[in-house]
Input
Amino acid sequence: MCGRFALELPWTDVAKLLGAEPLDDGAAWSASYNICPTDRAPVARVASDGRVVLEPMRWGLVPHWAKDLRVGARMINARSETVATKAAFRSSFKSRRCLIPASGFYEWTVDADKKKVPNWIHHPDGEALVFAGLWSSWRDPKLESPPSVRSFSIITTEASEAVASLHDRMPVVLDAAGRSAWLSDETLDDELASLMVPWAGSIAHFPVAPLVNNVRAEGPELIAPAPSRAAELEQLGLVL
Output
C-alpha cells in the first residue's frame, strides 16, 4: 500500500513534468515531505475540454454517492486487481483517471526490538515518480449549495523485487508513455491492465529516522538516512 508520500518539486516544475496546465498559480502549495491521508496534493487530470490540468486534491477518494466526506480516509489506495469492479472506484476507473507526482513514498518495517522503522523509497537518481490514480468529485448532500470537493486515490499493485522486502504492495508507477495512455479515454481495458504492474525501473530505499511517524512533522530531514545508514553510506563514499 501507500500511506505516506512526499513531493519536493515546486508547482511549476510539477506542471512541466506532467505536461499539465495549472488551474491556479500554486501559491497554496509548497514542498511537503509528509503527505498524509486527507491532505491535499497536486494531481493531473483531463478536463472536459481535453486539456491536462493540474490542481490540488484531497487524498482519499470520496465517491460521488458517499454521504460523508470521512469515507475518503478509507479510500487512499485502490487495488489494481479490483479497481475496475469495486463500487467505490469503478466509475472513476472508467472515466476519471489521474496522475499523482511524488519524490518518493514511505513504508514501515519492524526491527529486532519490534519497533516500527520507516523506510524512504525513491528513484536512486532523485527523479520524480508518477503514480497512477483515480479522482472523483463530491458534494455534501446535507448542504443546499455545497462546493465540489475533488479527491483522489493511488492505485497499488504487487511490489517489485526491490520493494518486496519492505511490503507486498506498492504504488503503480508510470513512465512517460504510460502516463499518456493512462489519461487517454481511448485506452482499452487490456492496455490499462498492462500498465498496473510492478515498476520495472530503478528504485532504491533506506531507513530514515522516526520523525515521519508524526503526521505534523515536516522538512527534508524526514528523508535523510537514519544515522546508522548515513554512516554506512559515507564509508562507501556515497552521498544522498
Q: What stands out?
A: Residues 5-235 form a domain with the hypothetical protein yedk fold fold (CATH 3.90.1680.10). Residues 63 and 87 are 9 Å apart (CA to CA). The helical segments are 11-18, 90-95, 176-183, 189-195, 227-235.
